[in-house]
Amino acid sequence: MTTPVPQASSQTPQGAGSTPIPSPLPSRGKAGEGSNTTLGTFGVKSGLAQMLKGGVIMDVINPEQARIAEEAGACAVMALERVPADIRVEGGVSRMSDPAMIKSIQDSVTIPVMAKVRIGHFVEAQILQAIGVDYIDESEVLTPADEEHHITKHNFKVPFVCGAKNLGEALRRISEGAAFIRSKGEAGTGNVVEAVRHTRAVMGEIRRISIMNEEELYVYAKEIRAPFHLLKETARLKRLPVVNFAAGGIATPADAALMMQLGCDGVFVGSGIFKSGDPATRARAIVQAVTHYNNAKLLAEVSENLGEAMVGLNIDAGLKGGRLAERGW
Amino acid sequence: MMPAAAPLNSVTVGVLAMQGAFAEHQKVLSKLSCKIKVIPILVRTNEDLQKCHALIIPGGESTTIALLARLAGILDPLKEFAKTHPIWGTCAGAILLSSQAVGLKKGGQDLFGGVGICVARNGWGTQVESFEAELEVKGLREGERGFHGVFIRAPVVLSFLPQQPDDPPIQVVARLSADVVPPLAGLDIDPSIKTDQTDVVALRQGMHLVTTFHPELTKDNRFHEYFVRECVLPSVQASTR
Question: ipTM score of the complex?
Answer without folding.
Answer: 0.92
